[in-house]
């Protein structure tokens, strides 16, 4: 058998066909087709029946629509050959492709715009700025439709572009940001490799020229003038100057400094980092009388200098600043400024200590007045002459009390006391020998009964409140009243101390247990002053090694006295003991009165209580009524009926007396009025007696009153169960009868 198969050529269709008739694409054919029309050709797939139509008999394929390769480059379809009579496949279904053939119908496009680049000013020729790129939708594999070439349409005087890569470069070396800081360059892209007839597209590239430090700072003026008052404190700002710089950013950062020596001493220049201005401030106090005008040379220079442009010139500039000092009315000034004076402590009142001088800096020989700030000399120890400034003593001085005095002296204009200046003055009080030396402490020494002659007992020293210019020198000797002393000797050691030694052998405590040794101490002056101190020596018993065992505390010569501190302590202890005793007595009395009040209150209440229930009114056997009846003597009460309080009956004090009553004998004809009278008299006596406290008294009387006004509530004696009796009055008896009222 001969194998059957499809017969067709490669199918192509040209894009963008503009004819009026369908465009012939190609023909499919089966080798079994004998041309008798018995075979029917059909296609299916992309665009079948819409874009592409087939002649069922001949197999010719036509395109009915305009195609665009940039939208779709090929179409995939399937072909079938069927028997027209039976509609059976004569050939297996076969797939074929119709390619859209490209034409140059798409221009290059810059898809990444807008383009913004930058280049530093003064860059050399050929410096790369940036790269642009255009894309062409045409088929790059077919012809030159997609080959793009670049060129500069506008801005070719300053920039160039590589025709193949699209890299933009500088064309000149003198780009100056200060002249022009932005360029708009138009770049064109042409396909067909730039040949004639190719399509083209363009874009605008913005190129920013960045700054370099190629401009030095410049002061707009060569001289500035400022003025300031002479009393302006140090640190006061005088004015501001600024050097201009055509650069931008950190290339305009400035540093300012004072160049001349005079200006450096009097003024200071700092840089304001926000405004890049030079701030001129006072560095030293100004004085109109000394100098009225100051000239300062201020220099400005860039903080960051580019070494590539050093050859362009010096990057600094200078200007002159004239500062005029304005005169103001100033307070007097103290001259000279010495603040230390000295005076002897024995100086008489009114003695001159020293003199202060103040001058008015504004007017020569202008009168000045002086005074002392009394807040620094409240005790008025010193005075000052208001006209001359002489400081004199106002009170007696004592170096030992206050060795230094710090006072404040005021100086003011005679005709304007608001202009005041102050100065601190230190006055030192010089010492004179006006205090005698004294023993350092109240010395007490001990000597053994078996002490030997020449034995050291005590070493003594002295104190002197004076402060001589040279070192202290003290002399020791026994006082004249100690000439009769044959027991002890005093040796001056020549180092401002002295030693006391025994002069005899053996002492007896029984004969004398305390010795008082007066010692005379003299200083070196001038003038020489002396005082007498007493050394107390006690005779003690010692062991064989000389250690003291016991001393008799009874003084032989000196009377036993207590120090003021000991007396105060003793008095405080006694006072505390007295307070404690009084406190204890007060607490005991309070406790006793509390118990007494409780006992009285208990005796006022005599309530006898039974917690069991009896058998009713006729039951006389359930209780022992004697306890109740024995409280009162009814016979006495009845016999005293009608007796007044002054007749020995129920007297004023009968309220506190209880009489035993005889055994109660029930009598059918007992008159209860006697009890009523008795109670009324008791109430009347209690009301009239103002000395009786308002205590409540509860008394129990062993008698029964009259019958109850309320009839019996029992239902036993009711004539019938259907009684018509009205019990509504029970509701008015109160809450205690509420339940009973509800039952009835």
TrEMBL record:
<dbReference type="InterPro" id="IPR002126">
    <property type="entry name" value="Cadherin-like_dom"/>
</dbReference>
<feature type="domain" description="Cadherin">
    <location>
        <begin position="335"/>
        <end position="439"/>
    </location>
</feature>
<dbReference type="GO" id="GO:0016342">
    <property type="term" value="C:catenin complex"/>
</dbReference>
<feature type="domain" description="Cadherin">
    <location>
        <begin position="111"/>
        <end position="219"/>
    </location>
</feature>
<feature type="domain" description="Cadherin">
    <location>
        <begin position="220"/>
        <end position="334"/>
    </location>
</feature>
<keyword id="KW-1133">Transmembrane helix</keyword>
<keyword id="KW-0677">Repeat</keyword>
<keyword id="KW-0165">Cleavage on pair of basic residues</keyword>
<dbReference type="InterPro" id="IPR039808">
    <property type="entry name" value="Cadherin"/>
</dbReference>
<dbReference type="Pfam" id="PF00028">
    <property type="entry name" value="Cadherin"/>
</dbReference>
<dbReference type="InterPro" id="IPR027397">
    <property type="entry name" value="Catenin-bd_sf"/>
</dbReference>
<protein>
    <recommendedName>
        <fullName>Cadherin-22</fullName>
    </recommendedName>
</protein>
<comment type="function">
    <text>Cadherins are calcium-dependent cell adhesion proteins. They preferentially interact with themselves in a homophilic manner in connecting cells; cadherins may thus contribute to the sorting of heterogeneous cell types. PB-cadherins may have a role in the morphological organization of pituitary gland and brain tissues.</text>
</comment>
<keyword id="KW-0479">Metal-binding</keyword>
<dbReference type="GO" id="GO:0008013">
    <property type="term" value="F:beta-catenin binding"/>
</dbReference>
<dbReference type="GO" id="GO:0007043">
    <property type="term" value="P:cell-cell junction assembly"/>
</dbReference>
<keyword id="KW-0812">Transmembrane</keyword>
<dbReference type="InterPro" id="IPR015919">
    <property type="entry name" value="Cadherin-like_sf"/>
</dbReference>
<dbReference type="InterPro" id="IPR020894">
    <property type="entry name" value="Cadherin_CS"/>
</dbReference>
<keyword id="KW-0325">Glycoprotein</keyword>
<dbReference type="GO" id="GO:0000902">
    <property type="term" value="P:cell morphogenesis"/>
</dbReference>
<feature type="domain" description="Cadherin">
    <location>
        <begin position="439"/>
        <end position="556"/>
    </location>
</feature>
<dbReference type="InterPro" id="IPR000233">
    <property type="entry name" value="Cadherin_Y-type_LIR"/>
</dbReference>
<dbReference type="GO" id="GO:0016477">
    <property type="term" value="P:cell migration"/>
</dbReference>
<dbReference type="GO" id="GO:0016339">
    <property type="term" value="P:calcium-dependent cell-cell adhesion via plasma membrane cell adhesion molecules"/>
</dbReference>
<feature type="transmembrane region" description="Helical">
    <location>
        <begin position="566"/>
        <end position="587"/>
    </location>
</feature>
<keyword id="KW-0130">Cell adhesion</keyword>
<dbReference type="GO" id="GO:0005912">
    <property type="term" value="C:adherens junction"/>
</dbReference>
<dbReference type="GO" id="GO:0045296">
    <property type="term" value="F:cadherin binding"/>
</dbReference>
<dbReference type="GO" id="GO:0034332">
    <property type="term" value="P:adherens junction organization"/>
</dbReference>
<feature type="domain" description="Cadherin">
    <location>
        <begin position="30"/>
        <end position="110"/>
    </location>
</feature>
<keyword id="KW-0732">Signal</keyword>
<dbReference type="GO" id="GO:0044331">
    <property type="term" value="P:cell-cell adhesion mediated by cadherin"/>
</dbReference>
<keyword id="KW-1003">Cell membrane</keyword>
<dbReference type="Pfam" id="PF01049">
    <property type="entry name" value="CADH_Y-type_LIR"/>
</dbReference>
<keyword id="KW-0106">Calcium</keyword>
<dbReference type="GO" id="GO:0007156">
    <property type="term" value="P:homophilic cell adhesion via plasma membrane adhesion molecules"/>
</dbReference>
<dbReference type="GO" id="GO:0005509">
    <property type="term" value="F:calcium ion binding"/>
</dbReference>
<keyword id="KW-0472">Membrane</keyword>
């Amino acid at each position: 058998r001969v194998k059957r198969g499809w017969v067709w050529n490669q199918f192509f269709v040209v894009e963008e066909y503009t004819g009026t008739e369908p465009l012939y694409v190609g023909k499919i054919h089966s080798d079994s087709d004998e041309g008798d029309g018995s075979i029917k050709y059909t296609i299916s797939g992309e665009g079948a029946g819409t874009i592409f139509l087939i002649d069922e008999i001949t197999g010719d394929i036509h395109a009915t629509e305009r195609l665009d390769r940039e939208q779709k480059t090929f179409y995939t379809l399937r072909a079938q050959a069927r028997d027209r009579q039976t509609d059976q496949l004569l050939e297996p279904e076969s797939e074929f492709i119709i390619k859209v053939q490209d034409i140059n119908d798409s221009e290059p496009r810059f898809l990444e715009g807008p383009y913004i680049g930058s280049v530093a000013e003064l860059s050399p020729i050929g410096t790369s700025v940036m790269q642009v790129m255009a894309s062409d939708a045409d088929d790059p594999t077919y012809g030159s439709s997609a080959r793009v070439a670049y060129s500069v349409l506008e801005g070719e005087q300053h920039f160039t572009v590589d025709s193949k890569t699209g890299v933009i470069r500088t064309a000149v070396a003198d780009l100056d940001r200060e002249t022009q800081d932005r360029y708009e360059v138009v770049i064109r892209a042409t396909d067909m490799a730039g040949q004639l007839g190719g399509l083209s597209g363009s874009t605008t590239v913005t190129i920013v020229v960045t700054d370099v430090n190629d401009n030095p700072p410049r002061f707009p003026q060569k001289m500035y003038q400022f003025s300031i008052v002479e009393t302006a404190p140090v640190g006061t700002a005088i004015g501001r100057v600024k050097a201009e710089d055509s650069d931008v950013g950190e290339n305009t950062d400035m540093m300012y400094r004072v160049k001349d020596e005079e200006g450096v001493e009097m003024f200071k220049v700092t840089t304001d980092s926000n405004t890049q201005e030079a701030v001129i401030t006072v560095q030293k106090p100004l004085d109109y009388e000394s100098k009225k005008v100051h000239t300062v040379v201020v220099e400005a220079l860039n903080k960051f200098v580019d070494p590539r442009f050093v050859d362009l010139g010096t990057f600094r500039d200078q200007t002159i600043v004239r500062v005029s000092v304005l005169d103001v009315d100033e307070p007097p000034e103290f001259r000279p400024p010495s603040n230390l004076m000295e005076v002897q402590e024995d100086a008489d009142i009114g003695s001159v200590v020293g003199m202060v001088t103040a001058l008015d800096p504004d007017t020569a020989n202008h009168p000045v007045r002086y005074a002392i700030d009394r807040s620094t000399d409240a005790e008025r120890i010193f005075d000052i002459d208001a006209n001359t400034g002489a400081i004199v003593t106002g009170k007696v001085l004592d170096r030992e009390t206050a060795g230094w005095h710090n006072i404040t002296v005021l100086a003011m204009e005679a005709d304007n006391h608001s202009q005041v200046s102050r100065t601190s003055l230190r006055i030192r009080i010089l010492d004179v020998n006006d205090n005698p030396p004294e023993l350092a402490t109240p010395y007490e020494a001990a000597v053994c009964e078996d002490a030997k002659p020449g034995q050291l007992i005590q070493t003594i020293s002295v104190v002197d409140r004076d402060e001589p210019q040279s070192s202290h020198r003290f002399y020791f000797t026994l006082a004249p009243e100690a000439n009769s002393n044959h027991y002890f000797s005093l040796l001056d050691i020549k180092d401002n101390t002295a030693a006391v030694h025994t002069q005899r052998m053996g002492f007896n405590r029984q004969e004398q247990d305390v010795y008082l040794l007066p010692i005379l101490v003299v200083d070196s002056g001038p003038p020489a002053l002396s005082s007498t101190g007493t050394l107390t020596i006690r005779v003690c018993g010692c062991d064989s090694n000389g250690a003291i065992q016991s001393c008799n505390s009874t003084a032989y010569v000196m009377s036993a006295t207590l120090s003021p501190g000991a007396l105060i302590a003793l008095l405080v202890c006694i006072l505390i003991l007295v307070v404690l005793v009084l406190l204890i007595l007060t607490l005991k009395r309070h406790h006793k009165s509390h118990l007494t009040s409780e006992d009285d209150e208990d005796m006022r209440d005599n309530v006898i209580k039974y917690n069991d229930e009896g058998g009713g009114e006729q039951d006389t056997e359930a209780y022992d009524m004697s306890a109740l009846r024995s409280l009162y003597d009814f016979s006495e009460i009845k016999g005293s009926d009608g007796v007044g309080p002054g007749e020995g009956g129920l007297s004023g004090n009968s309220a506190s007396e209880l009489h035993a009553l005889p055994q109660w004998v029930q009598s059918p004809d007992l008159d209860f009025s006697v009890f009523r009278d008795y109670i009324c008299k008791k109430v009347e006596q209690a009301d009239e007696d103002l000395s009786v406290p308002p205590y409540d008294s509860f008394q129990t009387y062993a008698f029964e009153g009259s019958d109850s006004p309320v009839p019996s509530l029992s239902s036993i004696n009711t004539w019938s169960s259907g009684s018509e009796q009205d019990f509504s009055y029970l509701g008015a008896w109160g809450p205690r009868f509420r339940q009973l009222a509800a039952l009835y």
